[in-house]
């Protein structure tokens, strides 16, 4: 009854609702400073202008911040970890695409320098450019690994919060909660095994 906009919502409608109710509602759940992430998403997604890869990367990072913050409250029936995984896949695809484009640009630049340079400069160019492309590849690889490890941490964190909530000694019905906690541990074990296999691959 008090919502700024009534459903059904578009994504832009939802972002408007977040902005409108941020201080009164969402600011009590996650840090209020994250309003800047909502505003960033709204400013980019409420226009019809096409987005370049750098803008998409910013949007993915801001979205990851929001998901991470809300994960401290709940996993939202498993929807949030799935969404976070999907975001990480998109981010990985984007960084891989950027890497291939950077390597192509480096190759083209190296070709131009070979055409224009004198013989001594040619040797320097051939030594320097592969090193530069290797550095770019290493940096992107590090970002990719960091992104995977961040996903690992968030998955384990979500399951851990869920388990500790179910093991709360103040709860009235201890037996069902312990059974749920055991199921939660099984889910966590399965998730960690998947992560281990992924890292070994």
From TrEMBL:
GO cellular component: nucleus
UniProt xrefs under InterPro entries: SWT1_Regulator
Domain of life the protein comes from: Eukaryota
Protein name: SWT1 protein
Origin species: Ramphastos sulfuratus
Taxon lineage: Eukaryota, Metazoa, Chordata, Craniata, Vertebrata
